[in-house]
Amino acid sequence: MKKNELxxxxxxxxxxxxxxxxxxxxxWQIRPGTLLKAVDALKIDGLxxxxxxxxxxxxxxxxxxxLNSEYGCFIGIDLHIxxxxxxxMDLTGNLLAEAFIRSETEKNANIxxxxxxxxxxxxxxxxxxxxxxxxxxxxxxxxxxxxxSGISLVAVNLPGWHDFDITAWLNNNFGIEHLNVTxxxxxxxxxxxxxLGQTAPQSIFHMELGTGIGGSFIKSGAVFYGDxxxxxxxxxxxxxxxxxxxxxxxxxxxxxxxxxxxxxRQVNAMLSREVxxxxxxxxSIQSFIxxxxxxxxVATTMAFKIADKIGLALVNVVALLNPALIILSGELTGMGxxxxxxIEQTLKMNCHPRALKKLEIKISELDSYATAKGVxxxxxxxxxxxxxx
Length: 389
Ligand SMILES: [Zn+2]
What we know:
Blueprint (H helix, E strand, L loop, with lengths): L2 H13 L3 E2 H8 L3 H13 L3 E2 L14 E4 L5 E7 L3 E8 L4 E8 L6 H19 L6 E8 L2 E3 L4 E4 L7 E3 L1 H9 L3 E6 H13 L6 E7 L3 E7 L2 E3 L29 H5 L1 H12 L13 H9 L3 H25 L3 E5 L7 H14 L2 H4 L3 E4 L6 H18 L2
Parallel strand pairs: 4-7, 7-11, 12-15, 15-16
Antiparallel strand pairs: 1-3, 2-3, 4-5, 5-6, 8-9, 9-10, 12-13, 13-14
The site of zinc ion (ZN) has 6 residues, from loops.
C-alpha cells in the first residue's frame, strides 16, 4: 500500500470516530513502521493528533488517534425554497455556529442570493475572531447541479435559479477557495447515514417530501450522483400516466401529485365541488397536514391517495436498489403514520417479499440544520482526502 493511500485510509477511518495504532495494524495487517510513517506525516501536517502519546513510548494503554479540531472549520449552506440554513463545523464535526433565515415572501434567485450572503455573514459574526481558519464551504442546492463544474443547473421551484455559477459567486463574494456544490438530497443522505454510524445499513434511500420531491441514495458510505447529476430524481417518476402537468414538462410525475403544488391543485379541485371540509384554497402543506391530523375526512382521504402514490414511486426504488432503509424527510412527513402505513401497504402489494424482508421505512429524526451539516461534512471530507493525493 502506498503512503498516500494509507494516509487517505487513516483519514477515512477517523471520519467515523477515533482509533488507535494497534487497531489499525490489526485491521489492515500492516507493519507498525509503515503505519508510523503515515501517522507522523499526518501529524506534521496538523491534521491528526495523538493527545495521550507522550514521547515515543505510549505505555501499556494504546493512545487514541483523533482529527485535530484546531486545523480548520467548514461552512455548510442549505438553500431551501422556504428557508436558508447554515452551519460552521470544525474538523471533528463539532458545531461552532448555526444560522436560520425563514423566507418571508415568495422566493426568487435574487432573494436566495441575499439570504445566502446574510447567512454566511451571520455565521462568521458568531464565530468571532478566535477560531480555526475557515477552509471550505459546502453548498446544498434545491435543484439539479453539475457536480463537476459546481454550477446550479435548475431548481424548478425557485424562479430565476438556473445555469448559475454558484461556485464562482461564492468564491468572488466570500473568498473561499475549496467549494463543493451538491444537491440538498445528496447532502441529506450523507448526514443521515453519518448519524446512524455503525448501525447504518449498506444501502439507504432518502426521499424528501416538501415543496418539491427529491431523492438520494448512499451505498457503503458513497453517495450516488449519476453521470450527469440527474440520478435519483424520484419526484419525476411517473405515477399517474396522463396525470397533472409537472413543472418539468411531463405529465403525472410524483411531484405533480404529491408536491406542494400538486396537493394544492387537488384541494382546489375538491373545493370547487362544495364538499364539507376545513381545507382551504391555496393551502400550505402544513395546514393540509393539520387538517389530516384533526381527522378531516376529505383531507384524510386525500392523504391516503397521496401516500399511495409516494408508495408507488418507492416500489420502483425497492425493485431497482433493494435498500435496507428508506428515510423520509420534509414537511409532508408531518402526516406520520398516515404516510408510513400507507407506503408499507403499497410496497407489500407490489414488491417481491424478499426485497421487503430487511426493509425499514422511517421518518427522519434530524433537525432543520441536518442538510447544512451534511454538506459541510462533504466539503471537509473532500478537502482532507484531496490533501493526501
Ligand atoms: Zn416532473
